[in-house]
Amino acid sequence: MIFRVELARHERVRRFLERPAVQRAVVVLIVVNAITIGCETSATLMAQVGWLLVTIDHIALAVFAVEILARLYAYRRDFFTDPWNWFDLIIVVVALVPASGPTSVLRALRILRALRLVSAVPSMRRVVSALLTAVPGMASIIGLLLLMIYIAAVIATKLFGEIAPVRFDELPDSLFTLFQIMTGDDWGTVAKEVMEHKPWAWVFFISYILISTFVALNLFIAVVVNAMNDAEPSPSEELAQAELVELREEVAALHAKLDLLLERGTVRRR
Question: Which residue spans traverse the membrane (predicted)?
Fold first, then answer.
């Protein structure tokens, strides 16, 4: 019976934490705390309302710590099975470390609390999860892109090393220049310098830009979009999740009624 009462308490705390109003309040507090931490970088604001900013920061940290403890109490072992819970726990623990002495650098890391917005907003969680899911596919594209840049750098060093030694004298110089061209940073100037001596060089630069920038970029976008589509829950999955939440609430209510009946029966027997 004691176990059931304790289980009912855990369930009540869980339902409280999962209320939309509570989750929205946490999101608002994260945003407000991020704004106050940014305001603390202003000497003028610190001189005028520094005490208020520090007070809000301490209150927000206390709320975050209490919320983590409540989630540990409500979910118990299940808390550690969710990577997002680990993410929140690490951020709060880092924020609790005294920002003085050898750990004074951690004071600058307080803004990491704003990252809790990612775990608090479901849509942001889905985006991050989709990006992590797309990492294997992006790794293959990155490998292909590096191979193309390396091949182009070797060709550019052989063709343009003598006429543009500052940019293509050696392989490292060519790699850096081609990376600059890939980002679109003043690539026209580089091309004109080479084309003054070799007018046909535009063929190399245009081909390289088309392959390295447009093709690779579109491949990156395709992989990420595909991963996000896979991570987006379908209407049937959302309906099943809502039904699961309702079922959990009904089970918790039944447990509470059963505990109440058992308590009344025990009192009558006495």
Answer: 51-74, 86-109, 130-156, 200-225
